[in-house]
């Protein structure tokens, strides 16, 4: 799934989780940004496709293989490997809290204790990890490709997912559902009459969004499962995905989303 939808899925989860703690507007923004970061972070393992990877990271770490080979392989640092695992989500979450603690301690030079800091900042760990989980969930129904799914249970060598129910990109319907969820959850606490029930309402909105997404994923008319891609099969599935979106969204909304897609410099 594309990085924009991944980022937004992390933000959507964070908007719901943020209603479970007492917070200021500024802190709420930080919480949502943390969830957004979690939603994006697993795809850091795609850095091996960076044009200058071989001359920089490859050279620095003495990697024998080129970035393109690393990307589609099953090394722990390959795409869909360690960073797409539950293990990584917990370790990176702990690293996040430790980093925040050290920054706060060094900047204020106080005797702040790590346990007290963690208790007051646990929400950041939660939304960050949930953001990563949202990313992993979004990758499960994508094609198996060269990996056969994602290394969800790393260090196990068994890969999970790769169901090929949706294409890599063009999932405008899912993007729009997550967008509506995020906007709704951001709006609910602004209404005084709804504020007291914000936890239940935002959780309900998030739950229904997940249900609607699952329905969309499982009612595609085309299949997108492949393990070895050719230029012909890739182009055909890309077109099928766009036909699918036009059928779901209708011509008018599809044109708007397609125009938006063409303005971006990232795969969407």
Automatic annotation (TrEMBL):
Signal peptide: none annotated. Coiled coil: none annotated. InterPro entries: YdjM-like. The chain crosses the membrane at residues 81-103, 123-154, 166-188, 200-217. Pfam families: YdjM (PF04307). One of its GO terms (molecular function) is hydrolase activity. Keywords: Hydrolase, Membrane, Transmembrane, Transmembrane helix. It comes from the Bacteria. The keyword Transmembrane helix applies. The keyword Transmembrane applies. This is Metal-dependent hydrolase. It comes from Dysgonomonas termitidis.
């Amino acid at each position: 799934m594309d990085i924009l939808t991944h980022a937004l899925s992390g933000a959507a989860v964070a908007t719901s989780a943020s209603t479970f703690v007492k917070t200021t507007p500024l802190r709420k923004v930080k919480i949502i940004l943390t969830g957004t970061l979690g939603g994006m972070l697993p795809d850091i393992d795609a850095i091996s496709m960076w044009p200058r990877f071989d001359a920089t990271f490859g050279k620095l770490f003495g990697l024998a293989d080129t970035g393109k080979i690393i990307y589609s392989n099953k090394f722990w640092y390959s795409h869909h490997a360690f960073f797409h695992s539950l293990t990584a989500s917990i370790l990176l979450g702990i690293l996040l809290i430790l980093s925040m603690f050290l920054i706060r301690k060094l900047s204020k030079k106080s005797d702040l204790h790590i346990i007290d800091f963690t208790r007051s900042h646990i929400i950041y760990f939660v939304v960050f990890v949930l953001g990563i989980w949202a990313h992993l969930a979004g990758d499960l129904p994508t094609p198996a490709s060269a990996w056969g799914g994602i290394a969800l249970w790393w260090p196990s060598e068994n890969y999970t997912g790769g169901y090929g129910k949706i294409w890599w990109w063009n999932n405008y319907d899912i993007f729009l559902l997550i967008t509506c969820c995020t906007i709704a959850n951001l709006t609910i606490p602004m209404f005084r009459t709804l504020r007291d029930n914000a936890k239940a309402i935002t959780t309900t909105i998030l739950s229904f969004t997940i249900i609607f997404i699952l329905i969309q994923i499982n009612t595609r008319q085309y299949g997108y499962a492949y393990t070895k891609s050719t230029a012909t099969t890739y182009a055909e599935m890309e077109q099928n995905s766009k036909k699918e979106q036009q059928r779901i969204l209708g011509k008018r909304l599809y044109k708007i989303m397609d125009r938006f897609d063409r303005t971006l410099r990232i795969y969407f």
